[in-house]
Amino acid sequence: MRTAIVRALRIVAVATALLPAAGPLHAAPDLERATQLVEKRCSVCHGMQGESSGEFFPRLGGQHAEYIAKQLRDFKEGRRKGEMTRFARNLSEEVIEGLGLYFSRQKVAPHPPAEPELGAVGRYLYHNGNRFSGVPACKDCHGASGEGAPRLPRLAGQRSLYLERQLKDFNQRERTNDNDIMHAVASKLTEFELKALAEYISGMQ
Ligand code: HEC
Ligand code: HEC
Q: Looking at the CA of 60, which ligand is closest?
């Protein structure tokens, strides 16, 4: 039963990931203004290469342009809430597209895992899930190397504290733009599994 639900969710997630973007028609990316904005504002927290300047700030370097643009629209229009709302409020479509393009072209180095044994638990869960409690394998949607797809975020190399917080927010439905998929996943994770996954994923190349 549980596997059937996960299979259905996966089909939905992968199918939407492959569909052409719905919603606003794509504007021509304004890379020049986006770069200026990164220098002036975004780099303070996310870094010039999207490497992030602290554990709570997500890495954006190498993230899919379409996913970044979707999150910025979600912040702008209030579907995803948080301190990013004020930075997204006045962004035009051209700049949103430009910011996605800018960060998707950056490359960031992964973090070596601090606790290899904990990371090994995370590696097992990421690739196999937990069949005893119904946690699906993350790789089914996010890819075997954590590379994601245009609508499925890249996870490889992401900051571990940010990952932990997102999984908790999905579980408590504080991150509201998850379309139920990640809530269903995160609500099955124990604290130990969550830490192990964050440890492993942040070290993925
Ligand atoms: C004061 C620090 C700060 C600044 C400045 C800032 N951000 Fe953020 N950003 C954050 C934090 C914190 C989060 C995590 C938000 C959350 O979980 O609610 C975030 C999340 C994001 C996300 C979602 C990432 C993901 O993986 O889902 C994107 C995209 C983003 N920021 C882009 C930008 C852009 C583009 C700018 C400049 C216009 C910017 N941010 C400026 C702190 C900042
Ligand atoms: C059925 C498909 C599916 C599975 C399985 C899945 N995810 Fe996700 N995940 C998604 C989608 C879709 C999103 C994007 C949510 C959105 O658009 O706001 C996402 C978002 C995330 C994010 C937020 C990334 C960011 O940059 O903010 C994290 C973290 C995450 N998933 C971790 C995991 C982990 C860990 C597992 C395995 C335990 C997992 N996911 C399994 C579909 C899936």
A: 1
The structure tokens listed for 153 are 């975020």
User: Which stretches of the chain score pLDDT less than 70?
Assistant: 1-25
Ligand 1 atom closest to the Cα of residue 68 is 29
Distance 142 CA to ligand 2 centre (A): 7
The structure tokens listed for 15 are 């199918």
Give pLDDT, residue 114.
87
In the prediction, which pLDDT does 109 show? Answer: 85
Does the beta carbon of 38 lie inside 6 Å of ligand 2? no
Q: Which of 65, 86, 193, 80 is nearest to 129 (CA)?
A: 193
The Cα–Cα gap between 24 and 185 comes to: 29
Q: What is the 3-state secondary structure (H, E, C) of 167-178?
A: HHHHHCCCCCCC
The pair of three-digit structure tokens given for residue 163, joined into one six-digit string: 């990952």
User: Is the CB of residue 34 less than 8 Å from the CB of residue 98?
Assistant: yes
Task: Say if CB 154 and CB 63 are below 8 A apart.
Answer: yes
Alpha carbon distances (Å) from 144 to 38, 62, 79, 194: 30, 16, 29, 18
pLDDT at 1: 41
Total residue count of the chain as it appears in this document: 205
